[in-house]
Amino acid sequence: MKGGKLIVFSAPSGSGKTTIVRHLLEQPELNLAFSVSATSRARRVKEKHGEHYYFISISQFKNHIKNDEFLEWEEVYRDNFYGTLKTEVERLWAEGKNVIFDIDVVGGLRIKKKFPDQTLAVFVKPPSVDELKIRLKKRSTESEDKINMRIAKASVELATAPQFDKIIKNYDLDTALSEAKQLVLDFIKEPTTETTD
Predict the structure, then answer these.
(1) CATH value at residue 127
(2) CB within 8 A of 132, min separation 6: which ones?
(3) Whole-model pTM?
(4) What is the total count of domains within the chain?
(5) Assigned domain for 128 exists
(6) 3-state secondary structure of 19
(7) pLDDT digit string (tens) for 82-136?
(8) CB 68: neighbour CB atoms within 10 A?
């Protein structure tokens, strides 16, 4: 695998990374395309296959793992697999795009490790764990148990922030958005040394 730039945004759930990624995708000068992840979890009400995720069965997911078809993958919660298919990134690179990811911390760091020179790995830091809990409750998409699970995971994820290239503190959304845009702009202007996989 070789191609353009990879821009990874990772953060605990509720930090605002999805909002930032959506904003960046609307900036034509960045020439970005979104990498749609595959997942074995059930589809939520408004989600579309191929737009939000590629929804596949657990057995299909395990088959892709066996055939080494993922750039990265992880069992985030029991029987809840998420991963990036190599074909997805190759497809976007073939279109001449820089690929942007909105993924889990572990997946983000794996991509950075595989493509150290081609990847900008950004960690989005929330104001506090308490603020995260408030944001997750406002979404009203998950049970109290699921929210508590995400909060417990967030503490672990926050500890990985120093392993990323850059940390954006999302205390004020407008500031975070302009900071993210500048980071990506600077990164895509840099010449890249392509690596092969």
Answers:
(1) 3.40.50.300
(2) 12, 13, 14, 15, 126, 150, 151, 154
(3) 0.87
(4) 1
(5) yes
(6) helix
(7) 999 999 999 999 999 999 999 989 999 999 999 999 999 999 998 888 888 888 8
(8) 7
